[in-house]
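note to self: dont lose this again. the chain is below, predicted strucutre after it. 471 aa total, dont forget to put it in the shared folder this time
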Amino acid sequence: MNEVNDNVWRPQKGPQTEVLSRSEREILYGGARFGGKSEAGLAWLCEDEYINNPAFYSLVIRHDYEDLANWLFRARRFFRGRGEVVGNPAIIRWRGGGITQTGHWKDKNSVHKYLGNEYQKILVEESTQCFSTMQEYEMLLGSLRSTTPGLVPQILMTTNPGGPGHTWHKKYFVEKAYNKCYWDPESGSSRIFIPSKFSDNKIGCGLDKQYVAWLNGLSSKLRAAWRDGSWDAFEGQMFPSVGMRELPFIIDPSDSVGRLFASLDIGIGHPTSFGLWWVDHQNNPHRLFTYKNVLRSHRAHAQEVYDKLQGFKWTRGMFPSVCWSSHDAWTKANLRDGWTYSPIDEYMDVFKEKGTQFVKANTDRKAGCMVMQEFFAEKDGQPTVRYWDEYNQTYVEDVTTVEFDKNDKDQYKKVAGDDTADECRYGLMGIATWRSGEIQKKLIASGASNEVIPFSIGTEYEEMFREVALA
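---
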């Protein structure tokens, strides 16, 4: 604590002081654990010009009820004489008559509780755990506004590296606004990222030396993230790498036949993700582009994907021979007079003249994760998968963001925002099956084998295939 007595709190010199002096509309404060972020958030929320105004209305968000309960426990003491925590769900009644609403952010559907309100201040604790996607953050940001003179709208988010929202936080705040004001040319909004280290909290370090010792004793990557606040190293990633970047190149139509594939994870209310793959003559998969969007109908998605494929210059409008799709795409809905229709019917209708076969993907999550790891792992200094960087931004962000399931580290955790990871899994599982079939055909043709060969990167079969392929 930074308290001088029960009613006085002063920020420590450094990031805490800096946070409370900033005027940017969007502030991210964080990095290391134990850096004094929570107290700075409490102080930021109860600035005099806000809590003395009867029109003040604000919002505090934590990831879950347990975290929120801990924050409210601290708030009751911190706000003594300024505001009172009352009710269930809890609100804060300020001495000037204003109110702060508190809540949790379980998933993207949580935003509906806050839409339509005018919040002059929004405080979000552990924002990388709350907002797995930039879209969720932007939805909440729509409620940050003020029609009251003197109450300038502002959002403060505190967090540590890691979590489902790590990648977009890093790109949006850390890389563009590191210790400086950044004016977004598209939105006109200002933002800043203020980094913190555990050593910034000198009072805390002096009071809890055992915790400091624990931070110092962590493994190198975890120590870099939790002690030093590094956004370049954190634990929990299922796939730290998703292949090797490469520049686009023209794929001749003769090389596309039988080697162009796709994967699809459908969604209404959450994103639909579509990936286009090409498998070269060494059987290495190339991720050509990613489509990810939220629309109101499956047919609208199908048409957008169709148009994107037809206009994709690098494949000269060629369409995939097979698209491995999530099983829910085949779920029938009763429309009228016994007539049923499924999402995949929409895709088949739109693609009917192109010959693309839509096939149910292998959805074995654990096996799929194993196949993904094998594809992404380096062999002879290079991963098997290549991807075209400029067309696969969401692919890189979303797949590197998924975390191990703590209850089963052989697979990634099922959370909102894993749509592209699921779609990628369907694609690589399909390509794995296709690859094993192609290897089998070549081996049988050469007389080297007459057995069914399971897919397994790095086995004797792959070495045998190389010899056959080179012959």
